Prior knowledge:
The complex is a heterodimer.
Chain A: H1 3-10, H2 25-32, H3 34-48, H4 52-74, H5 83-100, H6 104-126, H7 133-151, H8 153-156, E1 162-163, E2 169-172, E3 175-178, H9 182-205, H10 207-217, H11 219-224, H12 229-255, E4 257-258, H13 265-278, H14 285-303, H15 307-321, H16 325-335
Antiparallel strand pairs in A: 1-4, 2-3
Chain B: H1 2-48, H2 55-73, H3 76-99, H4 108-129, E1 145-147, E2 152-154, H5 155-177, H6 179-189, H7 191-196, H8 201-227, H9 235-248, H10 253-273, H11 278-292
Antiparallel strand pairs in B: 1-2
Helix pairs in contact in B: 1-5, 1-8, 1-9, 1-10, 2-3, 2-4, 2-8, 2-9, 3-8, 5-6, 6-8, 9-10, 9-11, 10-11
Amino acid sequence: MSSKAERNALDVDRTGEQRQVRMPALIDLIARHRVLAAIVFLMVLPWATPYEALAINILIFGLYAIGFNLIFGYAGMLSFGHAAFFGLGAYGCGIPIAKFGFPWFVALPLGVAVAGLAAAIIGWLAIRARGIYFAMVTLALSQIVYYVVFQWVSLTGGEDGLRGVAVNSIDIFGLRLNMLDPMTKYYAILVIVAVALWLFSRILNSPFGGVLEAIRENEKRAAACGYDIKGTRWLAFLLSGLFSGLAGALYAMHLSVVPIETLHYFNSAIVVMMALLGGMGTFFGPFLGALVYLLLEDIITVITVHWQLFVGALFVFLILFFPRGIWGSLLHWMKQ
Amino acid sequence: MWFHSIGLLLRGVRVTFDLFLLQLFTGVALGAIYVLVALGLSLIFGLLTIVNFAHSQFFMLGAYVGAFIMGFVGNFWLALVGVPIVVGLIGMVCERFLIRPLYGRGIDYPLLLTFGLGLIILEIVRMLAGTAGIPFGTPPSLSGAVDLGVFFFPKYRLFLIGITAVILVGLWLFLERTSYGLIIRAGARDQEIVQILGIDVSKVWLVVFGVGIALAGLAGLLAAPIRGVFPEMGVPVLVEAFVVTVVGGMGSLFGAVVAGLLVGITVSFTSFYFPQMATLSMFLLMALVLIFRPRGLFGRAGLLD
């Protein structure tokens, strides 16, 4: 049986895009060209947000949420430690720039590599913990990263965060991009995010993506078919960490500082919330979740300092009444 | 001359042995808090298959309710009785209205819901009691140190060890020697059969959740004189309790006790000999357990499938 046929046979997502069900033409078109649709959407985004810095945050956290969704939505494993990869991506990119004066195009892959290394190790340990253990173990292991970075003040700046990650301009193909201009910065980051999205879509469409969903739907059957459960999960965790690390590295370049909060467990919760809000296991959901979450945060933090109360209430509300999320509900409603 | 140096040597050994005992006792006192928190977590998981991410916020709530009762009546012993009742009741309300609709909907849902619930509790406490934290002294009758023959030990920490032992015995008697405990144990093994026998399982779950939360609240009150009372006091506790549960084995009460003490002693010794490794030592312990015995020291096989 070819992997494609295998995937179609198993393709009854909990929430997600069903490729066999008839859908309205526009949705069908978007689903068919999802990377292109996402890029078009992101290209007009800065005109729709109140200010450009928010659009850049949506771009970065959207990528973070998409990376997280690989393990949560597609592999069905709830990680509560993804802040470690986002944060290590940020520090791994920021420290070479701020402390050693590396150029950005060296620092960026370094950040991604550091995050990937951490994901490989944490994943290797956490995969041993089954089911519900997984969330607890990933949370606990990510706290190690937090403590180490917090205490290593000489390298990381500790509690004050890392300062001086200055990327003022980028020279590329004889072109000088002024990164102090928010619009230029947005589109420069968008180019990188677009490549990442294309890669992500390729991963989902590959036989590996099919096996991943097969394991989520029926682990025993996938094992009986001869697939390597642990290896596949570990690879998914590693890839998920790499995407989160890339988001973190871009965040460091965007902010020109790395706050210690990037590693805080609340940052792990935020990405869970974004995936949930948009619709886990869907391609566009996490981006939409990041968009709605950051817009809400932007509005509510102006009114009250008790933003976390709303985050908590939103968690409770989503779980009780709206578990499919925005995009997931839209897809579900279209199918009816 | 030579016997003099041997005498010195022996004295040196004796001093290190005293120190060793002191560190051991400190570790057990530290572990007592871990045991109480992890016990509640394990109890709830064992029966309801819920990982309660709000556990640490109920811990914090316990300390605040205790401080509130102390402010009113100024009696630590009354707080000791009042806190588990008040916090346990709040927990039962949360179970009834928030968690009960989620039974049978997959393990991640209640986990995420309790995380949100924890944030709500944290923020409400911040709104009502302020972000700065409030003073909480050791009760006068328990302050000072007591001579244990080989070393002086803080009276309060000794009390901590004692009260934890009393709670453990009480819980054991409740689970093993009462008819209600029998229902709980039966429910943990096979709830369907218990239901068929005509027992209202949802009522049992409500009580178990209440008891687990009451233990968390009590632990918060007991930890208050040592850790201080502030809104974020629960944050490290959640992670510590997870480490203890992973080491001991999810859902095993005996495992929670052994692992709680083990983690407490590990932290106590590393903070004495390698202070910079104190926070990391428990995670290394967890990593070791994950590598060599992924289901925990006393975890049941197949529980997590």
